[in-house]
């Protein structure tokens, strides 16, 4: 087939909050190392393999500045290299276990760890920036930028939204040599009028969740101008995305895939397959990679068939006009949560063009927008509203985040010297932004490491308020001491200049 039946755009949102020096297990730094080794490294290997085969414009990769800062951080680079070595040592131990199924799992883990270690030393030893720069320059991916620490933007003052987004886009430019024109808005959160801030920051296109567009009778098969701006919005196609994402019928729940939740507690590895939804962990069967590989091929073909049929239906409904399908996922799904995910991705990206589907990055796919839309508020959170970040379980956190943002801006305006950088003010902005991360409310609302999330929020808030108090009193000595102490723990953005948070931006 020479004429594509339509366009498919895969968007991967890559994010973890700042975890350096904030604990190890089970979240903390361990969280980062697992995602790095089992999702980020395999994804880059897949992209390199496909690029070597001649494929280009494969996917759109959103990477938050706070995660990029960690993947470039010298301390975390050293720690990750050590972590990979320890993974291999543990696997070698399991490979000598008494039981054959454990020995087999150990040999498999040892091979994966050895590959990851060699891959890290050859591709990642200088951090993520050279990796991304190469993929961008070779037209393999498009990079989406975003605000510095992944805050829930509709809850912030306009001036703060503009400053953290503008700083985040500049952070990407420093790392990869160009400023992204597309943005992944945290949690796909939208409120009417925020597009004017995007436009002021030079943003060309953003991703929203499908229901945000559908709520105003706008199809996700088209791109749309947002409000009265030139910012273009595309919407996630839930019918297609949930083929993977759905907890009830998504591919990762197949009985032959490796089970994420079941550990061999003696060695700490996942050695069982899903087996069945109602099977107790101790009754789950050993993982069989050869059988899982066959299921990957089946599920990749199924997904390609779903995308193809969706585009055929759209073309028929639109009197021959091709449509767009955008599928968006957290990058960590592929490899970390779903062990076979990277192999599935590689198969899908190879098969789609053979099925007559054009695969494109968002900046290529948007084309001429179908018209203007004026959506209501929305997100990609549960029920597509904001309650995960504002509901009863996190209302006090949301209130404190709001007051912290307001007080930070007030003390900046009232005490910053303006003619030169000020370390205490820079540290204050950094701690404030870390406290505003949307992750803390998400974790509390979903009861996922909620105590850790509260502890992290409290810590950043306490350090920020200590700096506010010292600055408000014009106690320069105390402010300097507190800034030094804070930046010893939290310093993802050494180039952050608090002066860019001064001033006024209105909608």
If you compute it from the alpha carbons, what radius of gyration comes out, rounded to the nearest whole angstrom? Answer: 23 Å
Q: Mean pLDDT across all residues, rounded?
A: 96
Percent of sequence in beta strands = 5-15%
Globular, elongated, flat, extended or rod-shaped: what is the shape? globular
Main sheet?
Answer: 10 strands, mixed
Within the CATH hierarchy, at the fold level, what is the topology of the largest domain? 7-stranded beta/alpha barrel
Q: Please identify the top-level CATH class of the largest domain.
A: Alpha Beta
Low-confidence stretches: none
**Helix proportion range:** 40-55%
Strand tally, please?
10
Individual helix count: 18
The class by helix and strand makeup works out as alpha/beta
CATH architecture of the largest domain: Alpha-Beta Barrel
List the helices and strands and how they pair.
Elements: E1 6-14, H1 28-52, E2 59-63, H2 65-72, H3 74-94, H4 100-124, H5 128-137, E3 141-145, H6 158-176, E4 182-183, H7 194-200, E5 205-208, H8 210-214, E6 224-226, E7 232-235, H9 238-245, H10 289-317, E8 323-330, H11 341-354, E9 357-359, H12 362-365, E10 372-373, H13 387-390, H14 395-415, H15 423-435, H16 438-445, H17 450-472, H18 476-489
Parallel strand pairs: 1-2, 1-8, 1-9, 2-3, 3-4, 4-5, 5-7, 6-10
Antiparallel strand pairs: 6-7
Helix pairs in contact: 1-4, 1-11, 3-4, 6-7, 10-11, 14-15, 14-17, 15-17, 15-18, 16-17, 17-18
């Amino acid at each position: 087939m020479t004429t594509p039946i339509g366009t498919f755009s895969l968007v991967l949102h890559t994010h973890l909050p700042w975890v350096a020096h904030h604990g190890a297990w089970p979240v903390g730094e361990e969280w980062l190392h697992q995602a790095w080794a089992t999702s980020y490294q395999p994804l880059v290997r897949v992209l390199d393999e496909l690029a070597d085969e001649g494929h280009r414009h494969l996917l759109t990769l959103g990477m938050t500045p706070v995660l990029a800062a960690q993947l470039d951080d010298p301390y975390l680079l050293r720690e990750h290299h050590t972590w990979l070595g320890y993974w291999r040592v543990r696997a070698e131990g399991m490979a000598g276990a008494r039981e054959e199924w454990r020995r087999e799992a150990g040999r498999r883990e040892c091979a994966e760890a050895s590959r990851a270690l060699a891959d890290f030393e050859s591709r990642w030893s200088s951090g993520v920036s050279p990796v991304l720069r190469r993929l961008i320059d070779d037209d393999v991916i498009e990079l989406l930028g975003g605000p510095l620490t992944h805050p829930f933007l509709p809850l912030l003052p306009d001036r703060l939204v503009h400053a953290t987004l503008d700083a985040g886009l500049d952070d990407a430019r420093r790392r990869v040599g160009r400023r992204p024109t597309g943005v992944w808005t945290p949690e796909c959160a939208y409120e009417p009028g925020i597009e004017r801030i995007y436009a002021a920051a030079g943003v060309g296109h953003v991703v929203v969740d499908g229901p945000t567009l559908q709520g105003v009778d706008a199809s996700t098969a088209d791109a749309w101008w947002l409000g009265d701006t030139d910012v273009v919005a595309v919407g996630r196609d839930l019918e297609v995305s949930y083929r993977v994402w759905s907890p009830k019928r998504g591919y990762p729940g197949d009985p032959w895939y490796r089970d994420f939740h079941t550990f061999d507690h003696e060695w700490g590895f996942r050695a069982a397959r899903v087996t069945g939804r109602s099977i107790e962990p101790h009754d789950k069967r050993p993982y069989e990679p050869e059988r899982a590989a066959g299921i990957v091929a089946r599920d990749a073909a199924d997904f390609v068939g779903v995308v193809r049929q969706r585009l055929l239906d759209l073309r028929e409904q639109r009197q021959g006009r091709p449509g767009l399908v955008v599928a968006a996922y957290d990058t960590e799904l592929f490899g970390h949560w779903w062990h076979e995910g990277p192999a599935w991705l590689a198969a899908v990206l190879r098969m789609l063009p053979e099925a007559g589907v054009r695969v494109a990055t968002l900046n290529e796919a948007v084309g001429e927008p179908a018209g203007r839309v004026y959506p209501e508020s929305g997100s990609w959170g549960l029920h597509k509203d904001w309650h995960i970040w504002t509901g009863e379980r996190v209302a006090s956190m949301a209130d404190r985040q709001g007051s912290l943002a307001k007080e930070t801006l007030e003390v900046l305006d009232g005490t910053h010297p303006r003619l030169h950088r000020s370390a205490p003010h820079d540290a204050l902005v950094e701690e404030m932004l870390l406290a505003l991360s949307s992750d803390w409310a998400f974790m509390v609302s979903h009861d996922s490491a909620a105590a850790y999330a509260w502890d992290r929020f409290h810590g950043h808030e306490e350090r920020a308020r200590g700096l506010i108090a010292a600055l408000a009193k014009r106690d320069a000595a105390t402010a300097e001491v507190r800034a030094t102490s804070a930046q010893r723990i939290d310093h993802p953005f050494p180039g952050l200049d608090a002066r860019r948070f001064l001033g006024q931006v209105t909608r």
